Amino acid sequence: PSVRPRHAYIPKWHYDMLFDSQRNDAYEMALKRSIASVRTGKGLRPLAPAAVDANGVDIVDDPRDNSWEARARRAVRLGKSPPPPPPRIAGWTSDKSANQEVLVLDVGAGTGILSMLAARHGADKVIGCEQSLHMCDVGEECEVLNGYATQCLLLNKDVRRMLCKDDPLLEKTGGVKPDGTAPELERRADVLVYEVFDSGLIGEGALHLVHHARSKLLTKDARLVPMGATVYAQPICMRTTTINCGDESFDVSCTNRYRWRPDYEGIELGSSEHSSSWIALAEPTEVFTFDFYESALNMQPLERLVTFDVDPNTCEQIGRARSKLARLMREQREREDGGHKEKKPEKVDVPPPPPKEKKPPAERLDDCDTDDDDDDEEEENKEGEEEEDAAGFSSTIQREDADFEASVKAAISRLPPDELDDNGPPLVCNAIAFWFELHMDETTTLTTSPYAASKGNRKGPTWQQAVQFVEERAVRVGQDLEVRAKHDTYGISFELAPVVDVSDFSSDTGIPLFDASWDVDRQRMEAVNGNLARAVVQSPLEFRKCAGAAVELAARPQDFELDPQHAARFCQRMLS
């Protein structure tokens, strides 16, 4: 037919992945090497093979184990280079026969790009799984259009619901599932490729997906692409001051107090839109290292204390510039009011931009005599000085680079408007930015760092940096800022450690409007409400008990120290 109803759609972020050549190239190189090593049965041993027992369950390394395998795994977890293998395994050969068939499992297949890359580089069979029915339709069409229909199979499945034919759970049923259908895999896969990462790395359940696949769907020496990841974090100041509406602006700086939240959001800190909206307060620090071969270890929640040293190279320069610019702004306001017109603005001590080549002055094209050139230049200089004074704040920074001037102004305006001096004014930490490096294999790494371009690397559009806003805290140059970093296997979060030194209590005075104990009580009550809702839905007897308690609370709220309106509202909702 010429027209048919649309049966699928592609979310916008899928196109970011499709056009991310750096991501696609990194996955292709890692897949090519992994499939080749499985195909020949030779090659480097995976850097962090998991130890498993007879039931296929991962075994966590004993710290006293000094074998090469254990030392290699510990080195990878710490982000270090593994020790060289002993000669007896330098030419390690797997238990597979040469030129054997290679089966690849693609988790989160989406449009099928990674499945087709695996098929292009020698995989005999690729089974992809995708939870979205729409994306399954799109991915299947892409694979057929590119001629990989016989090699690639795309299933609308959650990988955690997939089974292999040799699964012990299917022994009693003769190798079929309880509903009589065949298992998704005839045998265990040799390579696992997956792209189930968000801006915060593990927010899409990557650790759980890999753990299930290694336990149920992969061979013991299967290759993982990617093989690991390292997470870096950095405290930043990212505050909002004014918004422009037409010719006027509004001061919204008070909203910064309420911006903290327990989760993170994706922000492209290196983009032109956000590059001048934040200030780095310390050097980036490694906070977590994930070795995906150690799937059992990764399933354990982890918390650690990270100490950041407020960077003097950044903060002192910005602090001095901020202090002097504040004085110059006051002087400018006085000049606008009619006073101190004769006072010259000070020159701001800020880091200079890269030097520019000065061009020779253009030749005059008018008919004036050359003898009058000097007089004309003096008159132009005087007029230029008057125009600068009239221009206002732009005359306070003596720089040729307009972009640099604008970025300094933006940086200064985001800092708290306290009374300033030249002795290092306090900065405000109100957010933690973090990003990751994906270790595709032993030689290929993908980064989402906002500093990738400055280090000669490329960063694609697939992932942004993750930014979590925390309670505001004033910090000074040279101060140690302690941050608690933790992950619960589903997401990474940060919080500022409580202030221990009594002399530092003033850092929280006035900012933010944040009560940590209140938030703990709120979270506890949310958990109680959730458990209560599940109980009353599942059991009529529980609902009857809760309804009776609600009536009693509404009838005698003073006995339970409750607000009468809140008690009545709770009773009304329960009975309705």
UniProtKB/TrEMBL annotation:
<dbReference type="GO" id="GO:0042054">
    <property type="term" value="F:histone methyltransferase activity"/>
</dbReference>
<dbReference type="InterPro" id="IPR029063">
    <property type="entry name" value="SAM-dependent_MTases_sf"/>
</dbReference>
<dbReference type="InterPro" id="IPR025799">
    <property type="entry name" value="Arg_MeTrfase"/>
</dbReference>
<feature type="region of interest" description="Disordered">
    <location>
        <begin position="331"/>
        <end position="399"/>
    </location>
</feature>
<feature type="compositionally biased region" description="Basic and acidic residues">
    <location>
        <begin position="331"/>
        <end position="367"/>
    </location>
</feature>
<keyword id="KW-0949">S-adenosyl-L-methionine</keyword>
<dbReference type="Pfam" id="PF06325">
    <property type="entry name" value="PrmA"/>
</dbReference>
<protein>
    <recommendedName>
        <fullName>Protein arginine N-methyltransferase</fullName>
    </recommendedName>
</protein>
<dbReference type="GO" id="GO:0016274">
    <property type="term" value="F:protein-arginine N-methyltransferase activity"/>
</dbReference>
<feature type="compositionally biased region" description="Acidic residues">
    <location>
        <begin position="368"/>
        <end position="390"/>
    </location>
</feature>
